[in-house]
Batch of 2 targets.
Target 1
Amino acid sequence: MMEKLIRFNLNGKDTEISIDPTLTLLWVLRDQFGLSGTKYGCGIGVCGACTILLDNRAIRSCTYQISDVMDRKVVTIEGLASKGKLHPVQKAFMDKDALQCGYCTPGMIMNATSLLIENPEPSRQEVIDAMQDNLCRCGAHIRIIEAIQQAGQEMKKGTVSHEVKTG
Amino acid sequence: MKKRNSNPKLATTKSRLDLKRRDFFTLLGGGIAVYLSSKNPSELLALPLIQRREVPEDFNAFITIYEDGTVICHVGKIEMGQGPITSLPQQVADELDVSIESIKMLMGDTGICSYDAGTWGSLTTREYSHYLRAACAEARAVLIELATEHLQILPSNAKVKDGIVYDVTNPEKKVSYGWLTRGNRINRSMDEKPKVKDHTEFHYVGQSLLRADARQKVNGEAIYAADVPMPGRVYAKVLRPPSHHVKLKSVDYSEAGKMTGVEVVRDGDLIAVLHELPDVAERALGTIKATYTADEMEVDHHTIFDHLLNATGNMRGREAEGDLGEGERQADIIFDSEFYDGYKAHAPIEPHTAMAKWEGEKVVVWASVQSPFGAQDQIAQELGIPLEDVRIITPFVGGGFGGKIYHPQVMEVVKIAKLAKKPVLLAYTREEEFFMDFFRSAAVIRIRSGITENGLITLWDYKHYFFEARGSDTIYKVPNKLTTSYSAKRGSPVQPLPTGAWRAPGANSNTFARESQIDIMAAKAGIDPIEFRLKNLADEKMIAVINALVDKFGYTPAKGPSGRGIGMACGTDAGTWVAVMIEVNVDTNTGKVQAIRAVVSQDMGMCVNPQGTALQAESCVTMGMGYALAEDIEFKGGDVISSNFDNYQLPLFSWVPETIDTVILDRQDQPPQGGGEPAIICMGGALANAIYDACGARVFQMPMTPERILKEITSS
């Protein structure tokens, strides 16, 4: 496959890579950029372990090609904290013990962040609807729901921007 | 204090682990961490191997104390989400008298850690902790002895706080553990082993602590087996047969071999394609043409229960008491029931993964396993190489549930990497994960039981077919009873698919059957199901657990079906007495079940971390809803049809009850028991009984899908 130069913004930094444009976004992020926080879970966009933000909206990186991010903004779990300060969603997951094995956690957090960008004050039912297609085998769901609602409250206080700053 | 270079005369020799402090700290971040939070695995390769096949008695095998007071706790347990990374340091800190912040955990590395057979069976606290606590208690006693000699103070005046031994009559006279040990092995032991602390002396044990690994897991730094960076590493994709019962007849991988950068390796029927890019390796795998023998087996997920009932095997009676004929005669009502349960997948979100790197005759494997030492044994035996040439390093494990007791990926990747002569990563795809799983057994249970008109059980004739016996004990006081286990004869397996331990193996199916039967009898007798249980129980601990459950739930007695949708089940597992009560709504038009609230009550002896216990109880309720209501492996012969999460249904956010409360009976003066598995055993029975209570439909088969519930609603 012919290589192509792909330019995009990754975790706040403009970047480019010359690569087979049909390669799966998930694997390029992990293998070429060393961002191993984004996980493989199912490969068909069903489990949500590979969720990242593309232009501030949650997408499943296992169903995208690297060419799909051309001139767009990508944020992975590694890009969520700002200057070592955790994002309110990350902090709420810690405070609520909303994780066990931790493998689905980055995808959960990215999906929740996307929800809170769109809807800063989701009801319990809105959180459930938004998270429905992210799978957790350990059964941390009930705490994840609480954590997302807490993060929404924190963000509402206005101390943190809802948008994920990129660049 | 004496000059720093005046070594205490009784000090120490070079640590058996021969680990320089620097080695640890390049590997460890702040706080408690498994050491692969660092991204520099090559430094680890310089470290020496030790191996033991029994949990060692020498306390040095568990801990090393460095000059700055850091206590490295190196244990063979692994962290797959159930929290030993938090609960083990609580115990170490209390037994050693050090602050919990000074402890760093190194887990699951056969080169560094004290031997452990595997992380399973809810054994970490109820078994392994005894060894660890005893080791720490002895280390503390030895360190105090060294300190009193060094300080020249009376042993009776020596006290310890936060790893510093001081003279109570003159607190200025003090010396730290770290100064005494300096990261070295302590060459002294106590002839008379000191007692571990009494529960009244604990500071950390019994406290609710948040997960120690949470920060790494929320910021993406936590390393799992696929995340270990390794220059020159390639991905392997393995050719899989269409069925477990077929053999490879012919294979043509010439096309794959022609692809740029693709390498094909073969060891017998193990055929793998390698490429640095997983996309390319996957494409190459798709070009391989292979033919197989036919799968003759006809049995599938519909006919499996007849298959089990008709199979021949060994029969063994247990728990025999009284006389079944007498039980029949005493009974006013007899009940015959048959219960069924299909195959379940472990389905951890992290599939089985391993990376192998050979250096000469030695191999290092970073693996997602529940049994690193078991994997080490297997490789050494199968390849005929010495144990010390094999090292397994277990980073964070992304869920196990029993499924990573079996680690076929480890042997495969070791063989592939040997042929490839380069580091190889084998990360199963989800489809491989389903195919290669050792499923929870399909199960059939037959119960013939009888009660008097007053609701006393007189007869209990329990037969379970070709799955684990765990959880098949009666628990109720019955004068005439027999439990019969049918099991496969050696060499002639009855289950058509590979089966293995799945979170509380056997106990989920057995408890579903027993607790459903209890409710069936209670309803017929016209007695509230809780009252019926209490009437037929003699076990004081079980009674106390049920009373605590009823209190917390605010349950009021009623005959079933009450229309309220409340169900409960109880049992014992991993040494713990457990009961779960759940309230549900059943949509009688669709058969859909919605959980509303749940309470878990358990007597687990001493509880190390109530918060961690609550997490496990919630996990059991949530995961248990999956097996009870939806999860079912579809298959035909040896072909596993369920292949991904779009055709195997895990529990979803919308299923979760609004609240899950956990009651832990205060038994801090008792030995600790299991916490990871017990509550899940109740979920099938509690939900079956709640569904019945809601709408009068009794479902005898798990998963209790909307279709099965609707069918019972229509027929009832």
Target 2
Amino acid sequence: MTEQPEQLMFHGREIAMTATEKAAMRHKLLAYTLSNPSRIAAASVAWSWVRRHAVMSTVLAAVLVVGATGVSASMSGPNDALYDFRLKVNDRIESAIALDEDSQLDVELRQIERQLDAEEGAADEALADDEQDEVEGSEGIETPRPEKLNLNGSKKSEDDESDDEDGLSEDEPRRNNAPLNIDDGLESELRQVERELQQEESVNIELEN
Amino acid sequence: MKQTLEERFIAAFDEHSDAIFRFCYAQTGWRELARDLTQDTFARVWRYLTQGKSVQQMRPFLYQTARNALIDHSRRPSAQSLDEMQETGFDVADERTPSPLVSAAAAEVIRLAGTLEEPYREAVLLRYVEALMPREIAEIVGENENVVSVRITRGMQKLRELMNL
């Protein structure tokens, strides 16, 4: 041998798979990667995006949180935790984005109607709970006559029904004109807004004529 | 544009598969087995990558994985050594012929290097067939550079003795 073993071994670098062997193995491995996909690939891609766009990610997260809270709050009632958020944020935003006077009045009217519905619903629930408690608490004992809720949301016993029949209809204004409770206040506010709307409409009709 | 994990993996295969095959072939002397071990090595690397672990330098990592695959193979009860196969009459002469491009003299030296005992065989083959630097070999085998250099020197002395040089 003329060449040194180190030099001879260097020729070993020419050892390789044939093109067919290599292509077949490549094909098998490609199939293997597809049948065993990376479990964390999607997660790591998402995380790397978040890290690269930290500011945008924070803003996006904040928008999502506030948006989700707003949507939940818009469906909340007086007994829900987000009801305050709805009154203080949702309704104010809604009023703020109403540009002209008509839209503002519409928004106010809608808000009052929603508020009334929600509070009436809450009052009904409370009444149903009370009745349930009374039935459960005094089984076998003569139960007091059930109270009835009138349209204003205030509780009345059946004895008071005669008063209504005596001439005080639902739509008739109260004698002293002062709201008796929150619901009364809201209803009078609602009526006021409705009156304002009617006035606006009549002015518009006159102007058109 | 950033490559996907699959694309990076296949690119690593295209780049390093021949080196890994050569490493396995020089260690086992059996082409078929070297092919299986090469495939096993890349499958192991893929499984490692899919666990979310990162590989800083692919080449040394592939050699490390191939080395583990070789060790696992040698520990299997069914695994037969080259000597055993020769003793039982399995003719490996054709299989050991590395390539028509490699001269008979080169093939004989590689065959003899393959018969060296560990850890000299691994150090000599990685140094002279794979042309890795002692620093790179040290990284693969998990030893320091001086230990690797000593193994290479002693391995070559033993190889010369086998070659009657």
